[in-house]
Every structure is written in structure tokens, then in C-alpha cells.
């Protein structure tokens, strides 16, 4: 644990293991909200996913139950700061944040070259914001223990969106195997279905960062796992020009933060890839889905150039042996409309 993270943890009050979250809709509607936990690794696309969820709690009757942090795009201490910065900007300090795994299950982790730090060393483009965000949302409980308590408190009522390496979830499965039966649904940003990677090898980044964790999750989840793979990200055609023009003038304070981050990160890029945001949008509005297919999938653990790759076993035809639903196509126009709606920060 870094010294910065220790300081933040010392600032946390120890009153109770789970923060009493303010779900704005519970007293306003008859139907119970759909509860969700966002497990992330703190890059700009993670922030877009968090923003998409929080901005749509009322419209889609959801409750962001917790945010859990994992290593991945940055050190877990930086991931925490990035999450807190977004929550501070939105005045949503009621959303509890839990710190989880700081490293993959097997160490040392995979070697990362410069391209693997797409979001900079700190996940937010190494932008100097000047000052640390409030840590009021930070909770003392480890993310894995928080997941256990929440899934037991709300059995089969919480969906998990996992948009970083799957270390926290794999630890949950191994430490508390009985808990996995209490998860309502699981959506993952990660893996690949045609061997197209974004790490210089044949693996997608989140699976590349912790292949063993991905292997555990795909082979131990009692429910079918919805996977949004890297190849589907590549099919989206949001240009950086559209992104910068659309959000240049915004009243949303979280987008103001992300403008500073992405002006650095996307300065020389033509295509904007807010990968994790797609998973949040799909959870909110399933009508976005246009083409999905179930398969049996495994994670390659030993290949010299394929370690971390998600391999589709096409010869396994029996649906009861399938463990993933791969999302191949979504309605980009609907997603675009949802993004534009975020511009209004009211």
C-alpha cells in the first residue's frame, strides 16, 4: 500500500462496515431500483462509465450501490483518487468507494510497455489538478469484503459491472464461493473473440493484466457472463473530433474534469474509445444490444503470445455448456444520444 493511500485510509471513519448509501429513487417510486456495483481500474473510460450510471439513476431507476477499485490502468491508489475526483465533481459523496486488489493474483505482473499506459501513469493523463479530492466516500472495508456483504444484504438484486482486471471478483469467488450465487448479473469489459489484442500481443488489456483472474471468473460464474470484447469496441466510430466538439461547452463538472484528461490522452488520436462506458450504457438500456451470441470460452494461460487471450470454443454447441454471451454489435446512435444527454450537468 502506498503512503498516499495509507493517509487516505487513515482519514476514514470506522463507524460501520458498509456506508448507508442514498439511493435517490427508493422513496420516489413503487418499483425497487436495479442495484449495481461498478468495479473499475480508474482510467478515463472508467470515469465515463461511472458518470453514465450516476447521471441516469432516476431515468433508468438504478442505484449505484458501490464503486470498487482495482489495479489496472494505474496503481490502485491513483485509481482511488480518480474515482473520488469524479464523485467530488458531481457532489455524489454518498456513493461508497472501496479499495481492492493492488496487484494481479500471480506476481510479478506482465511487463508493460509505453502503449500499455494509454491513460498515463496515474490513469488520468498525468494532469496536474492541484489538490486532492475529498475522501468522504472512501470506506475502510476491503472491496472484496464489501462485495460479499452487499451481495448477502441484497441477494440476487445487484448486478456487477467489471470494467478492469477481474482480480477483485476472482478473490471473491475463492474467498467466499457461496456468494457468487447471490449475484444478479455480471457484465465484463474485456477479452476478445477474434484474437485481436490491444497490448502488443493477442490479449485485451484487462484480461492481459490478470489472466488467472479472468480464467477463474469465466469458469466459476454460475450465471452466463455478458462480455463486451475489444473487437466490438473497435466497431464504434466516435471520432475524437466529434468528442471534443460535442463536449467543448458543457455544464457537467465531471465532463470538465474529463476534458482536461482527454485533451492530453487523445491529442494525437483519431478515434475516441470510451470502452467501459459501453458496459454502463448496456446495463442501463438493453435495447442498445443488436447482436449477441453465447459460447463456451476459456482464457489462455500459457501461450507465449496468447496469454490472457479469450478463446472461443466453437465446437461446443451445447448451450448448457456455454459460459459467456459475447456482445458483437450495439446501436451506436442510441449510445451517442445517451452521451450527448450527459452534457447537461443539472
From TrEMBL:
Any Pfam family the entry gives: IU_nuc_hydro
| Keyword terms of this UniProt record | Signal
Decide whether keyword Signal is in the record: yes
Q: Does the keyword Signal apply?
A: yes
Signal peptide location in the record? 1-20
- One Gene Ontology molecular-function label: hydrolase activity, hydrolyzing N-glycosyl compounds
CDD domains, A to Z: nuc_hydro_CeIAG
> What range(s) does the Inosine/uridine-preferring nucleoside hydrolase domain occupy?
36-335
Q: What PANTHER family does the record tag this protein with?
A: SI:CH211-201H21.5, SI:CH211-201H21.5-RELATED
- Family in the record: Belongs to the IUNH family.
* Protein name, UniProt field: Inosine/uridine-preferring nucleoside hydrolase domain-containing protein
Species source reads: Anopheles minimus
Amino acid at each position: 500500500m502506498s503512503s498516499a493511500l495509507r493517509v487516505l485510509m487513515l482519514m476514514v471513519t470506522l463507524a460501520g462496515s458498509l456506508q448507508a448509501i442514498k439511493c435517490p429513487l427508493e422513496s420516489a417510486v413503487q418499483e425497487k431500483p436495479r442495484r449495481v456495483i461498478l468495479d473499475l481500474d480508474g482510467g478515463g473510460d472508467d470515469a465515463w462509465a461511472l458518470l453514465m450510471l450516476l447521471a441516469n439513476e432516476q431515468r433508468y431507476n438504478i442505484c449505484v450501490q458501490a464503486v470498487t477499485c482495482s489495479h489496472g490502468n494505474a496503481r490502485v491508489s491513483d485509481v482511488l483518487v480518480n474515482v473520488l475526483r469524479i464523485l467530488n465533481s458531481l457532489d455524489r459523496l454518498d456513493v461508497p468507494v472501496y479499495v481492492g486488489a493492488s496487484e494481479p493474483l500471480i506476481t510479478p505482473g506482465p511487463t508493460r510497455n509505453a502503449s500499455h499506459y494509454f491513460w498515463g501513469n496515474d490513469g488520468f493523463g498525468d494532469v496536474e489538478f492541484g489538490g486532492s479530492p475529498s475522501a468522504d466516500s472512501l470506506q475502510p472495508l476491503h472491496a472484496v469484503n464489501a462485495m460479499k456483504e452487499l451481495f448477502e444484504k441484497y441477494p440476487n438484486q445487484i448486478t456487477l459491472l467489471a470494467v478492469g482486471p477481474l482480480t477483485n471478483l476472482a478473490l471473491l469467488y475463492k474467498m467466499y464461493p457461496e456468494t457468487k450465487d447471490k449475484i444478479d448479473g455480471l457484465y465484463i469489459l474485456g477479452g476478445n473473440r477474434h484474437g485481436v489484442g490491444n497490448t502488443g500481443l493477442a490479449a485485451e488489456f484487462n484480461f492481459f493484466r490478470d489472466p488467472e483472474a479472468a480464467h477463474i471468473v469465466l469458469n466459476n460464474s454460475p450465471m452466463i457472463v455478458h462480455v463486451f470484447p475489444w473487437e466490438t469496441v473497435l466497431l464504434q466510430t466516435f471520432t475524437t473530433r466529434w468528442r471534443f466538439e460535442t463536449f467543448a461547452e458543457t455544464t457537467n463538472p465531471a465532463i470538465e474534469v474529463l476534458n482536461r484528461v482527454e485533451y492530453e490522452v487523445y491529442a494525437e488520436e483519431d478515434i475516441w474509445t470510451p470502452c467501459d462506458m459501453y458496459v454502463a450504457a448496456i446495463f442501463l438500456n438493453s435495447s442498445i444490444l443488436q447482436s449477441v451470441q453465447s459460447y463456451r470460452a476459456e482464457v489462455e494461460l500459457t501461450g507465449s503470445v496468447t496469454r490472457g487471450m479469450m478463446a472461443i470454443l466453437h465446437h461446443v454447441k451445447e448451450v448448457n455448456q456455454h459460459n459467456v454471451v459475447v456482445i458483437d454489435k450495439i446501436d451506436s446512435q442510441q449510445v451517442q444520444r445517451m452521451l450527448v444527454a450527459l452534457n447537461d450537468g443539472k
